[in-house]
User: What shape does this take?
Amino acid sequence: MRGRRLAVVAAAALVLLLLWLVAYPLVLVLLEGLRDRAGWTFAYVREFLARRSEWQALWASLWLSVASVALAALIGVPLAFLFTRYDFPGRRLLAGFVAMPAVLPPLVGVLAFLFLFGETGFVAHLVMRVFGLERAPWQLAGAGAVLLVHAYSMYVYFYLFVRASLLSLDASVLEAAATLGAGRWRTLRRVTLPLLAPALSGAALLTFMTSLASFTAPYIFGGGFRVMTTQIVATRLNGDVQLAMVETTALTLLALAALWLFGRGEGEALRGGSKGAAPAPVRVRRRWARWVVAALGWVLAVVLLLPHLTLLLVSFVPLGTWTTQAFPPAYTLENYVTLVADPVRVRPLVNSLWMASLATVAAVALAVWAGTLAVRRRMPGRRLIEALVALPWAVPGTVFAIALAAAFSVHRPWVGRVVLVGTLWILPLAYVVRNLPLTGRAILAGFRQLDPTLDEAAATLGAGRWRTLRRVTLPLLRPALVAGATLAFVTAFGDFVTSIMLYTYDTRPISLEILGSLRQSDVGVAAAYGVVLMLVSAVVFALGAERGSGG
Amino acid sequence: MYETADTEHPGLSMTRPMPSPAPAPFLLLDHLTKRFDGVTAVDDVTLALERGRILALLGPSGSGKTTTLRMLAGFEAPDAGRVVVGGEDVTRLDPVRRRMGMVFQHYALFPHLDVGANVAFGLESLGVRGAELARRVTEALALVDLAGYERRKVTQLSGGQQQRVALARALAPEPKVLLLDEPLSNLDPALRERTRRELRAVIRRVGITTVLVTHEQEEAFDLGDRVAVLRDGRLEQAGPPEELYAEPRTAFVARFVGRSSTLPVRVVGPSERGVRVRLEGVEWDVEPPADGARFEPGAAAALLARPEGLRLTPPAAGALAGVVAERRFLGASSLYIVTTDGGTAVEVSGPPRMVSVGEPVGIMPSRRAGGGLHLFPAGAE
Assistant: This one.
């Protein structure tokens, strides 16, 4: 039909653009590890394989990710059951608090943990005071510290996935099990858990991949404990560029292998024939039990909110006033004033804002383009488009940072390489590539839910392509667009992993300024930045939730 | 607004005119063919419809009726053939420009727009604005008995109301042809008959040329001035409902339209009334086939019998012998399902309490002249 040729051209252009942005840099990383000035060589691969530290880092990445999954599940799954199945005073409020770590960008979370559990943090001070110690009895460093941060920030995946699954469970299925004589444990084991399997495996995959890609916590707390992501950055700082490329390829292969293994283990999602109401939460009957559960819930909420509160508290502490006291002696707005008044301090805020906004607009535009062609018009090559949109999710951010740095640091336009590193454009570009999977997933899902006959209805009513897009498609896509844009903005706004590899002084984002302030022991300003980051993320999420619901 | 529609379809608004001897068809499907990946979905279908008439495309799923409708709307481009509306060849015309109003199977109402905005959508495409727009929306809603529903959300309406909004939306821009895709399939059976009556009344009042797709014979007969039976993409027969029932040209049409039983018979030879056939030891005279097909003596054939084309008798010579297996009480009559001694199940219409289940009976052709029995070559489906 008319416009078909145009659509084919558009699809081809999209495929080329995505290949150039997503696949090409990764291929270049692979190739750069296999050659140097002299030509093709396996020297760097051999060096990689021969070094003990590389194997240690690979192993560390792997076991850390497995342990993170186990710990996150251990916390998240019981919480999901507690807040979905049992009713007690304060349940609704607490259920919201439990998802709080989600609004904490990784660097801010790490920062808060540092202030809270670090050697000079509140808890250490408290313990020293109570036991009359001269020094803090522990150091927040090494694998244990990283694991603590991971567990805190990643149990949310299990909590949210399992809770959603429990809420969508058909109560009549459980009632059927009861009428068939199954007791509580048998029902749990034979009915509930199998129905939860997709949620559990989805959360496990997300936790594993996030943990494998985790850079911030190992970078700040790792010390001598190296995982692959920090290893790559260290090697590159040493100037061993080719070896860093081989390491990057190794990490990519590990991530893809994990994804493949999970994919094999995951069966068809079970779908019940009926779509009934979710089981109502059981009221905790005995009075003492209700109080115990409620008290536990509140303690939990406080524990979960402590990092946020710590950050807020520290952000009011002026430079140099807090030394050995358990609690800071003075609180002022000085840090926030600095943030707004000092042009050097304002710059990162402005940078992060415009770069995140640009990356959001671009990611949403790319996702709508992909959705129109791949889902709506079912163009040839739609599988390739969808795969390319999803690919960056499987690849750790560090890998993409290295890959983009490698691809766009030389000027060879005839092979699609131009110098972007050191310019204003490399960070927004990196954010777009990193955001593409999340934004794309939200928006492609929105496209899938659109009823194609609505398009046909609009056509029989004389509406052309643009009017249909403006009056029918985009309004109906609004929740998906808002969700995609929210995720894109919040991720880009708080990004640390790719920024640290690609920033320049002029484009330094908030996260790098936090790191800088921290290194100068300017903890108050670092915390103030952290609070800004946290608040903007929370506000964007809240706005997104409101706008997305169509209200 | 439908005054204008009436002038577009002169004399067809309130009453059905007698067909003139050779009226030029308003809508012509000319040798339409459509293939999907080598499978022929619609195979050389030709149909003509006069202005203001209703054509029902009837067939089982996969018969190509929906594809035919989609080619009319312009969603599928035919591989061969033409679509002509009012003398204009619209085969290559974009759906946006075709001026075909369509009611979709699941209505496809815009969920984010209210009832009024849904109905206004097509009028806005035509550039209708302001007071004129409001007036025409009001009129369209009044037509389907939903006056005052402008600001309702479409998601809050019942299925029947949604269907009427879809109809109002399709009719509001005064399309040249109205297309209905299984318009009643989404409704409660209890609601279906009433909605069908209302639908017919609205179409008649507007006088619009209409094509509807259905797999329900009753729906097709009730709504269609002409019914086209499709099967595997081919047109089996098209004509007024009465003609299809009384003179089915193929065994498929005979079976698909109305109730019938199939009796395997052997041709004995021509007789004064038509053809003499033998079945399970008895011989009957049946009328000659409508299409004039000739049957060689000794050839196997299939006799399709309407329940009213047969009658029950006491067991007797010349009557097909059997036992009543089931009796369905229908009020004025009963439908008897008789298992013949040869093992064939035959449906026979009769007085309500003529015989009981388990009683031996005989079956004879009904005394009424004029059919109910149709002879087709054996194996012809």
